[in-house]
Structures are given as C-alpha cells and as structure tokens.
Amino acid sequence: MSDTVKYLLDEQHLPKTWYNINADLPEPLAPVLHPGTKQPITPDDLAVIFPRAVIEQEMSTEREIEIPGPVRDVYRQWRPSPLFRARRLEKALDTPARIYYKYEGVSPAGSHKPNTAIAQAFYNKQEGVKRITTETGAGQWGSSLALAGTFFGLEIVVYMVRVSFDHKPYRRAFMETFGAQCIASPSNTTEAGRAILAEHPDSTGSLGIAISEAVELAAQRDDTKYALGSVLNHVLLHQTVTGIEAKEQMAMADDYPDMIIGCTGGGSNFAGLAFPFLEERLRQGREIEFIAVEPSACPTLTKGAFAYDFGDTAHLTPLVKMYTLGSGFVPPGFHAGGLRYHGMAPQISHLSKLGLLNPRSYNQLECFAAGIQFAKAEGILPAPEANHAVRGAIHEAEKCRESGESKAILFNLCGHGHFDMQAYMDYTAGKLKDLTYDESEVAMALAGLPSVG
Length: 453
Hints:
Elements: E1 6-7, E2 17-19, H1 43-46, H2 52-59, E3 64-66, H3 69-75, E4 83-85, H4 87-93, E5 98-103, H5 114-126, E6 131-136, H6 140-152, E7 155-161, H7 162-167, H8 169-177, E8 181-185, H9 191-199, H10 207-218, E9 224-226, H11 233-239, H12 241-252, E10 259-263, H13 268-284, E11 289-295, H14 300-303, E12 305-310, E13 319-324, H15 346-353, E14 358-362, H16 364-378, H17 386-403, E15 408-413, H18 421-428, H19 439-447
Parallel strand pairs: 5-15, 6-7, 6-9, 7-8, 10-11, 10-15, 11-14
Antiparallel strand pairs: 1-4, 2-3, 4-5, 12-13
C-alpha cells in the first residue's frame, strides 16, 4: 500500500542472532587495559563483575551470536517492534523527505533497554548469580533490569543518578514495584559515594559516579555481578535486534535509508539501529549516512578527546579507548538523564574516529520543541533522550525541503516520555534553560586522563 503507516513483523521474524560489528571493523578496536598494570585485560580480570558468557561476547569477533531460546521467549512479549512511516510529520514539515522511525517504546519498560537487560539477566542466572548491581541515569535502564530480574528471579540493586532520582519519582516507583532497590547516587552506602559527598554534599551525581558505586558493591560478594546498560561491546551487540528487524521492515516499505539517526549517551540505542546497516556499508559499500546526536551540555563525541579513560569516577573499571570528557567530569543537570555520561562506547568512538559516522549536538530547548512537534503530528510523546534523534531527523527533513531532495530518513525512537512529564511541564512553563558545561571543568578532567604508554 502506498499510504502504509506501520510495518509489522510477526514473531516468526524475531531475529535468531545478534550482529557483532567487531567482525567487520576495518581496523580492530584498541585493547581494553587493566587499570593497575595497563596491560590488556584478561577474561579472569573481568570475571569479578561479569558472567563468563557476557565476557566471551565482549571479546568476540564472530559476526553472528545466537540469541538463547529463553531470551527470545521474553523478547516475544514486544518484539518485533513496529516501524512507522511518519507521514503526518512529513506533511507538517512540508518536506519531500521520507521519514521512518523504529519505535522501541512498546517494550514493557517503555524503551530499548530490555533488549540487553533480558539477555544479561539470563546469563547471570545461568551462572548461578543471585544479585545484580547497576546504575541508571534517566531510569529506563534501571526499570528494564528490574523487569528482567523479576523474570529470572534475581535481586536487583540500582544506583540512580541523584538529579534523575529527584526529577523522576515514577521511574523509581516502577523499579520498586518490580522488586528492585533504588538508591540515589552519590550515596552513603559505598566508599565511592561517601568520598564524593564529603567533597560535594549537594552533588547532582553522574553516571560515572553511579557506576563506581554499583561496581564497588558488586565486587564485595561472590553471588553478585554488575550489569551495564550501555557503552560496552556486549550491550551494543544485544541491541542489534532493532536494526536487524528494521532492515526487513524497510524492505517491506520498498525503501532503503539514506541516513540513520540516533541519540547517543553511551551509544547503545544508536548502535542497535545503525550497526546492522553499517554492516552493509562496510561489506557491500552501500551509501548510508550515520548521524549520532548528543546533548550540547555533554558533547562527548563532538568535543571530547579520543583517549584511554576510566568508565567510572572512582577509577574502579578497566581503561577503554573512547571519546571522553574525562571521568571526573560531572555534566550539568539537564533533563535527558540517560545522555549524561562522560564517555562514548568504544565501538562508536572507533567508528567516529574512522569517519564512518557524523556526530552532532543540540541544545535542550530545541530538542524539547522537536519532541512536542513530533508528538502533535505522530501522537507519541518521546523521552527527552529520544528528542535528540527527533531533532536530528527534523533538521534533515527541513534540509530536504530546502533542497527539494527526497531522502529516506530512519531514526530510532528509543523510548516514550510518559515518566518524564515533569520535564515537559517545566518546558511548557518556560522553566527550562539551555545548560552549558564549564569548559574549565572539562579541561581539568581531561588533564587527569590516565597515562598509557
């Protein structure tokens, strides 16, 4: 049908494998280093905080990795997720562009995050783990792991960045409803948290701080492991179900994207949609533009340094080579809490360094304006994080209007904003401002980058 709005796949089309981009990188990733010895890290080093199956996936260069049956069974609750043609938005913009969005807000937690939460919970359960600790920014990842913990009978402890803990009480309530313990970070429950509070009693927190607390807690008990919601290779791997489905759905639409857009904080939702299409660019030479959108108040890809850095503030994690603003940098408290991270996924950083994707940043107010413009046309209110991808898509559609080109734009609408209404209330009341980061703080944080020979 020429006027089709949604493209749906049945459960028989649920992917059976994840796609691992490490198999197709034109140059391999820089090795992950032990924080003490500065030597390449071993599986035994990582076994303190991760289950073996996850470690194997983190280091794998196999192109396809099988999705376990129990994980696929849970995925069936909401996957395959729908692909929409944004026809009303196209009309509102008066653009010849063809706009598509893959909608991950249909998951039980309302975002793309369960794609990896379910997998990580399964692998931990399989290894006999009883408890998982983690961090969360906006609360979408914490909600997803709380849900996964219920499905697989695991205790979940979530350190939630203080500014989001205060802004989003219903995210906290969601986690607690599913049995998780949710703690505002920085907290007095860990040495890392107490050290931050001693120096900054009013700290708004950051993902780097919350990671430190979660890792510290995980390392204290043999029955406990740590789970991460973004950044690492295995997390981005699990998210590729999104792009694998989208390739089939774009074929149903008899179309193919000229550009793919996603928001980036740690990088998982962008990678989930983009990597399966990047495979076709890397292996077949298909011409696709990949646009990674981040907040101007935390511009990791656009303003950061490509260097080895810690993934957390207390320097408990291994060293990875990535675009970073420095592990000690605490971003201002803007509402897209899931994007307030000092570093970018090593795989995405590597691809950006190779010139295979285009990073871009936008301010908070223009992203909220784009989200409301999208909602009025399409009827879906995006999460503040997803608004960055919406802004990027609208920007490109407006450029098509000016040039007269009819390009196909595909973006990842990675979650809904139903738990983010305070942010929208603040925006419509004129209370939000475009926040800027302190360049001297970034300079100080980058000056503290670890020395790696």
